[in-house]
Specification:
Radius of gyration of chain A: 19 Å
Number of domains of chain B: 1
Structural class of chain A: alpha/beta
CATH superfamily of the largest domain in chain A: Thiolase/Chalcone synthase
Structural class of chain B: alpha/beta
Order of helices and strands of chain B: EEEHHEHHHEHEEH
Shape of chain B: globular
Shape of chain A: globular
Number of strands of chain B: 7
CATH architecture of the largest domain in chain A: 3-Layer(aba) Sandwich
Helix content of chain B: 25-40%
Strand content of chain A: 15-25%
CATH class of the largest domain in chain A: Alpha Beta
CATH superfamily of chain B: Thiolase/Chalcone synthase
Order of helices and strands of chain A: EHEEHHEHEHEHEEHEHEHHEEEE
Largest sheet of chain B: 7 strands, mixed
Largest sheet of chain A: 10 strands, mixed
Oligomer: heterodimer
Number of strands of chain A: 14
Amino acid sequence: MKDVFITYGSLVTPLGSSVQENLDALKTNVSGVKVVSNSGFKGENWPLAKIDTITENRFSTLLLNSLIELKSNFDNAILQSEKTLFIISTTKADIENFPEDTFSVINEVLYSELGIKNKPIIVSNACISGVLAINLAADYIRLEKFIDVIVVGIDVVSEFVINGFQSLFALSDEIARPFDKTRKGISLGEGVGIVLLSSNKRNSNFHAKYINGSSSNDANHISGPSRTGEGLVRSINETLKRSNIEKNTINFISAHGTGTLYNDEMESIAFQRTELNTIPMNSLKGYFGHTLGAAGVIETIVSMLSMEHNILFQSLGFSEVGTTEKLNLIEKNEFHEINCVLKTASGFGGGNASLILVKEVK
Amino acid sequence: MSIVTSCKLNASSLIINNQLIHTISGDTIDWKRELYNFYSKDYPKFHKMDPLAKMAFLGILGIEKTTDLSVYDDNEVSMIFANKTSSYKSDSNHFENYTKKNLISPSDFVYTLPNILTGELAIYLKWYGENCFYILEKFDLDFYIEQIEIAFSKGKKACLCGWVESSDKSEDLIIFIIENQNNKINKEEIYSYFK
């Protein structure tokens, strides 16, 4: 099967405006989540991972900000090529602009700012969008439809989404504590992560090889995770099968870990059923909050940083086992060789997705 | 013929395999409820669904008029769904709740994701397979053909493709099942089918 390489292109979150700034912040285990007063439906002060410097037009500003680093990493010959496709992963796009069109701004910005040649594809599949978009990017390259595919994962914090998650009683009144015994729910976040998948090596610093990925539906409930983790189990098993690798070659799992009781419990069961529960694992929601459609891409970038710098980042907010099945959550930053990473995601609509990357030695 | 079955529906008609099966009177408040009654199907979850999911479900019932979907294993059909306005109707509902009615409702919010409809279909059909929802400017057969090609390259036996739109302007659904025949896709056949 044709080789597909993946590298990072841009990362803008409350922790920093570039991949390097985010890496520096992650190393010190700081959280981007802060209490925002009067952010709730009834004036609650929810902890949120918002980017302070953005005060209006959050979505288009965030998208524009992310293109600065993208342009510095890849030249126009790639960005403007006929053989380059953009895939956008977002749940609600420019929802602050509702009831006006919330998605059209994406194409406007990409055409005008980058001069792209092909019509972008927008994946909007709840919280697994980012992993699905990366899997789709690899599919396009393997079928030789494109040479380069750039995946942009982006979502913003909005009144619309805060009110929604508040109605579900899914928000935590302290910084999210994924997998911890005292976890109370999610902290919403915003950000954008951009990765480039290619049949060529496009970055002078780091590449991973995209091995394979898959997705599976729980076929169980539209908003509650499966009690048996069935969809996640199926997706992980299918990804392992397609990847043709042994489980024990996986050095690290970047889990979804939203911080809700039911999601994290479901994941623990799925990792136990797939016999992956002893592999070092983290959730990054304590750093970035839950960035919805951006999460899969942002977390894949951090997985690549773990491989590049041989650092396993602490699963921030975790201190005591809080799931039926015990997981090997990373309690403080660890430094060792990371060659093979499994990334998973689960979301509303019963979706589950996963992918495997292997470090590409220079 | 690799397209097994198709179903199109809107507020005035139900068309299966390009043949008019039923004309919707439009006398009732909701044409989707009228069509649901026409099928004489008992599936209480239908009444909780948002317009997008209702239409997709009604499309599946149309497909089941001529095609037995239980012949497929629970992971061998990929669902490829798209529209232009995402979950606009449900978004409006949730938006009006908190801007005008001073309330927030979990059951309204959940449907503000368009892929909830593929989740509903997965539950109804007990299909655990791959599925994805896309936002496109318009119904674009070439896009579906690419996605079908990708699914078939992974050994999927069939794809359930759908375009489902529910906005203030219109409500429309096109849904079809296409089967994998030696990983070959006859584009001309697909184009002429939808002419």
